[in-house]
Amino acid sequence: MTPIKTLVRRTVPAMLLCLAAAPGQAEQPQTAPETGPGSAAAAPQLKPLPPASLNFYGSPGLIDLPSAEMLPDGQYAVTYSWFAGISRYNMTFQALPWLSASFRYNGIQDLNLFGFSTYYDRGFDVRARLWRERRWLPEVTMGLQDFAGTGIYAAEYFVATKRFEGQALGWGRGPGRLKLTGGFGWGRLGSNGGIATTGGARPRFVGGDTGGELATDQWFRGTVSPFAGFEWQPDERWSFKAEYSTDAYVTETRESDVFEHKSAANFGVEYQHSERLRLGAYYLYGSEFGFTAQIQLNPKHPPTPMAVPAPHPVVPRSHWATEQAHWSRDWAASEAKQRQIRGLAAEALKADGLVLEAITLEGTRAELRYRNPRYRSAGQAAGRAARALAQTLPPSVETFRLVPVHRGTGLAAVEIRRSDLEALEFDPDAPDALFAATGVSEAGPLPPDALFSAELYPAFATSVSPYTRPAYFDPDQPFRLDAGVDFAASYSPAPGWRIAGAIRQRLGGNVKNGRASDSVLPHVRTDQVEYAQFGTTLENLYVSRLWKPGRNLYARASAGLFESMYGGISGEVLWKPVNSRLGLGMDLNYVVQRDFDQRFSFRDYRVLTGHASAYYELDRGYQLQVDAGRYLAGDYGGTFSLNREFDNGFLVGAFFTLTNVSAEEFGEGSFDKGFRFRIPVDWLLGKPSRSSFGLTIRPTQRDGGQKVVVPDRLYDPVRAAHRRSLEEQRARFWE
Length: 735
What we know:
Strand order of the largest sheet: 21-22-23-24-25-26-27-28-29-30-31-32-33
Shape: globular
Strand content: 35-45%
Largest sheet: 13 strands, antiparallel
Helix content: 10-25%
Distance between the termini: 55 Å
Number of helices: 12
CATH topology of the largest domain: Porin
Number of strands: 33
CATH superfamily of the largest domain: monomeric porin ompg
CATH architecture of the largest domain: Beta Barrel
């Protein structure tokens, strides 16, 4: 078993990685107007300047130094920087208005100290704002740089930034802005111009023999040096920078011969090419030229505005049901009339991209069970479904009970009064008012007198789509990629049942040329090179069934070939009350490792794996998940995941796993960790779609802490239709 001290040293860095996605105090974005003399508020008519620019480490800053600025909440940045054969690929996410996190992949040419022609290294940063800029006070931020890696770029710092803006600094089209930055740094940022020492000497590399561990006893220890610089933005396009750097680049210049460090002064100019792209050129350390390219995106601001056909207006019944006879309930006793109404409702739903699965009609109420294959927002789909019923149901029906369905299973019941729908359509407070009057409850069993759609089952579907399969951080080639086409088909003979499979055709790539596994654990994931040797493969072929065994309970059973590496049998149960933020689940899987050719044969390795899971919906779109159980390599432990999902489906998250596998057994990286992204297709294209592109990046792919991937997992589709999601998306009910 892992000693307690080592366990703590492995847990803290991963928690810091995920801390950047923890809920916190609500604040305005950094670009919000300040008050007082010399502030942007003094000249509100002027065009605002762009968000903070990024330094060579991908964080808000000058050139090689940090600043105290923060990006707008939710901002996602990808940057590339280069000088003197040193390349840095950076990804930064502004998880909260006051907290950001970065992942970086470095390449250093000719670093002979380590015996590589190009030495590659990975690192994580986290920054927390201590206080915001005020009338006379600067913004102040604390940062940890490369705190969970080998520590080759490890540094800690406190930095302050003060902005001065107004017509007095104006030039050209914009108001002008001068930013003054100063701070104190340790580690890398304390290696030049030191003025004091705190805590004694500090080692140069602090990440442990396998990397990924955190030496908290080294933080803010060693020589401390003051650094400073400024940035002048004459307008919204151009920016000029200068700084005094306290990074002596000891490893690159004194112990190797990467470049010559002649001066501590750096100079640069940057150009904001567009709202998302920024370019920069620099003269560094008295001997080198460098450049950066920065791309910044914000999930709240899609590149293409959403183009959705306007919903049908809700015409109050008082406008068209003008006679007493119109309000009669006699139609409810006629089976023919009910079938006619079902047909009209199905056509109205179809026009909005929804599918009627079943409808129950009474004199004053109706329950509609429907599928939503088009809209990412369950609230938007519910709004369209309610309008379809308002168009087609007799005026005597006052109550709409809307039940979204996933694979034949009702997820929730949204109960709306038709009169509220009619009265609030043009009310400026309609989202809040209608949600306050709406009931959200358990879907319950299907009523025995429900009228089914006659054309739903059996259902057969096919699709052809491109795929990519990346492999990261091979020392010989940091990025490898396979690409090709998936041919998929599915067959649903009855509600809840699904038979699905996909044939994959690789068209090209170089994952097959990667390094062979050196893992001492069972090779449950690290044989990806062996699996990449074949061009035509059977990606999956399985049968699954979803159903509700009881109140607040959902269940799944699956059997077949689940993914490219494993097949077997799997079961899952989820307890998730409609009005609760908490969900509890359990899955159990008996799987066998598939042969490398990914057809119908298997290897000798088989394992029983499964987890107990707890899910919790936090504020601001954060979702917490904790899993505990047995993993594919037979190791026992737990996984901590924290995601932030925006209303439009854009997702950013981080995770780590700790098991009873020691850091030495695990190998490089010490324990499993990584981050994930999901980019919705409709966010990119501006057209309604539930499809998305997903990406999970691990600094190192090893065998410890790995799970089997089983299709049709329960939590995400169930949660999306429950109260918390509907409340967060209540404004979209009217779209």
